[in-house]
Amino acid sequence: MFEHIHFDIDIERKISVERLRWPSARQVRDGSGLGGNRDYCDLRGQPWSDVTDVLREEYELIERIELAENPVEESELIEEEFTDDPGGMMGLDIGVASTVAALSAAGCVPFASCNGGAFGGPHHESHPLVVFCARREHLPLLLAAAELTGVGMESGQMGEVMVYADDIRRMPAFAATLLENRDLFDGLGFSDTEAKYSDRA
């Protein structure tokens, strides 16, 4: 039976409001200056309905790996299926795709993610994380969701925000909490379709 990895990291929740940076429309369209992620793809403006779909698929895939006789082979098989269907899970790692979708629907700008090898195989990061840009108005809701689900959340040197976990299962739980609070995020006025192309601070 599959045993989930416990990543040996400290969980903290520290955000510097003064350091937050909101990218320009040009930056989010071409990825310029967004963490140097060469694989960056503009995933802003995801509808909450898509978050529901991604979250459901993600839970199903995680359960599929958990119940497999050979979880590593099952994970590799899923990756092969994604190769045949590049749009599956938005082309993102299992375990963090729902968080990317939820942050996008909430009006944030996700630009890097990795599950840290939670289901095997080499990965860029040593633990699960999603890096994104947020507005200060987002922070109370984001931090409350982080506290509830046990994920960490910190601001980076360049004004970005990182949500991360010591157990991959916490990331979909975080995404589900954002989804449950979608009306509060929508009430901030940053998650409408116009915000996808807006530079307003």
Percent strand equals 5-15%
Major sheet strand order: 1-4-5-3-2
Strands, total number: 5
Unreliable spans:
193-201
End-to-end gap: 48 Å
Give the class from helix and strand content and strand pairing: alpha+beta
Q: Mind telling me the C-alpha Rg?
A: 16 Å
> Kindly state the mean pLDDT as a whole number?
88
Topology order in helix (H) and strand (E) letters: EHHHHEEHEEHH
What this model shows, in words?
This protein is of the alpha+beta class and about 200 residues long. The chain is about 40% helix and about 10% strand. The protein is built from 7 helices and 5 strands. The chain has helices at about 25-30, 50-65, 70-85, 95-105, 140-150, 170-180, 180-185; strands at about 15, 110-115, 130-135, 150-155, 160-165. A 5-stranded mixed beta sheet has the order 1-4-5-3-2, covered by helices on one side. A hairpin with a 5-residue loop joins strand 4 (about 150-155) and strand 5. Helix 2 (about 50-65) runs antiparallel to helix 6. The N and C termini lie far apart (about 50 Å). The model is unreliable at about 195-200 (pLDDT under 50).
Summary of the model, kept short:
By secondary structure, the protein is an alpha+beta fold. It has helices spanning 25-30, 48-67, 71-84, 97-105, 139-149, 170-180, 182-187, and strands spanning 13-14, 109-114, 129-133, 152-155, 161-164. Helix 2 packs antiparallel against helix 6 (170-180), helix 4 (97-105) runs parallel beside helix 6 (170-180) and helix 5 crosses helix 6 (170-180).
Key features?
alpha+beta, disordered C terminus, 201 residues, 5 strands, five-stranded mixed beta sheet
